[in-house]
Amino acid sequence: MRPSLLLAVLLAPQVARGAPLPLTLDPSRLAQIRFSIAAPLDEIVGVSTAVSGQVRYDDATGQGSGRIEVDLSRFRTGIRLRDRDLRKEFFQVDRYPKAVLDVDALDPALPGLLAPGRDVAADALGSLTLHGVTRRVRVPMTFRAGSRAGRPLVSAKGKLEVRYEDFGIPRPRMLFLKLGRRVEVEIALAFVGPPGSPGPAIAAVDLPDAGLFHPGAVLPVAHLARPRRRRLQFAADTPEGRGERLLDDPGLGGPGNALTCLSCHATGDETERGDVGKDGTIRPAWSLWDAAHRPKLWQGLAPDAGSAAALCARLFMLAPGGIDRGRRGDLGAYLGKISPDDVAPPLDYRVLAMTRKTGLKDPVKGDPARGRALVARFCESCHAEGAVRPPLTPGLYEADDIVSRVRWLDRVDSHQMPPFDLARLPDAELRDIVTYLAGNEKTRIFQREHPVAATP
């Protein structure tokens, strides 16, 4: 499912009047290429950070030139067997390992681009080489300039639609089912010039991370929250009222975040595992009830509830910088209101630590009928029509991948999926869930090939 990737950034034919300024990819900022393609059951999204290249830009004329390359073997969609099929059957990386965007002009030209503090738009004109075929392309781009330690910075973001047929790529029908004919490609790049670069005086204006997505977010998806009919207790103009509303706000996280605090936590007094709510679902994390008075949070890494929320935002909600002090205070104020006891015991993280060291023996030898009912109980607070993730469809998942995500065996591969530990979701019930989701052995898309060994 990957389409032509790579889009380039600044461009332009060389023009007189001073030597064009060389700009290289800024190693301190994440360069990312993202593709998305419509599928019958869900949008398939892949991300790669394996991007290289250099451009040259003349600030006097607003023109330049450059080349951006993407390693096609490094895209990740979140399912390992799908990634393998992508490399082998779609991109055919053994023959065509890279996609290359050569840029030769900007339309219109952008003289004075290096003046900071404004977004400027232009189309990058050039050619895209993919699957051994080269075609002319026009890529709408947005640029912003800044500086750091006397070095000019330029961020560039753009989008491009690509048709498989234009590049001789066969339309995938097996692992990907029957997909749409177009792929949307997005790029986010940041360039830096050499120290002491000539040109106009540039104010010290640093840029935000150019990446469209957080490094751990291999499958960023827009938040599709269904309307919640929560009965709010506190006025919106009070700290506790603001904190109460932040619990259900995906904006607490970074770009591409789909989760809220309430995706993983309840706010009522837990009476049984996972705090089974009125909807019958079990959430993966402890309730926030009484959280403000625990003597230790995050195994002592967080001194208070607001700081603990900031750690959650970094780990699960795609916010590398966490949460600012003001919102931490608002969250702490609300959690204080739902913490009636003077002291609450610290949480025991030993079960979670043990969970992350174990696999699941015979993951597709459970009871699929029980698994179907358990999916509704454990999964549908997030995986449902109009929820933060699409409904789960049997037959589309690799069994080991489900286990790895649910048990957090590989934190990066889990993306935004929070861990369900052994106390909340025992192996027997997880086995039933995996058996149901993997589908019938004769018809399932992903065949089990690499067993995950369970640790005694």
Low-confidence stretches: 1-17, 199-228, 448-456
Could you give the order of the helices and strands?
EEEEEHEEEEEHHHHHHHH
**CATH fold name of the largest domain:** Lipocalin
Anisotropy-based shape: globular
Name given to the CATH architecture of the largest domain: Beta Barrel
Return the structural class: alpha+beta
Number of helices: 9
Radius of gyration, CA atoms, in whole angstroms: 24 Å
Biggest sheet, in brief? 8 strands, antiparallel, barrel
What portion of the residues fall into strands of 2 or more residues?
15-25%
Helix-residue proportion? 10-25%
Q: Would you report the number of β strands?
A: 10
Number of domains: 3
Beginning-to-end CA distance, first to last residue: 39 Å
Q: Tell me the name of the CATH homologous superfamily of the largest domain.
A: Lipid/polyisoprenoid-binding, YceI-like
**For the residues shown, what is the average pLDDT?**
78
Give me the side-by-side strand order of the main sheet: 1-4-5-6-7-8-9-10
**Top CATH class of the largest domain:** Mainly Beta
Walk me through the structure.
By secondary structure, this protein is α+β, with helices and mostly antiparallel strands. It folds into 3 domains: 21-192, Beta Barrel (Lipocalin), CATH 2.40.128; 239-337, no CATH class; 350-438, Orthogonal Bundle (Cytochrome Bc1 Complex, Chain D, domain 2). The protein has 9 helices and 10 strands. Strands 1-4-5-6-7-8-9-10 form an 8-stranded antiparallel beta barrel. Strand 4 (51-58) and strand 5 (63-71) form a beta hairpin. Helix 2 packs across helix 5 (325-337) and helix 4 (305-316) packs across helix 5. Residues 1-17, 199-228 and 448-456 have low confidence and may be disordered.
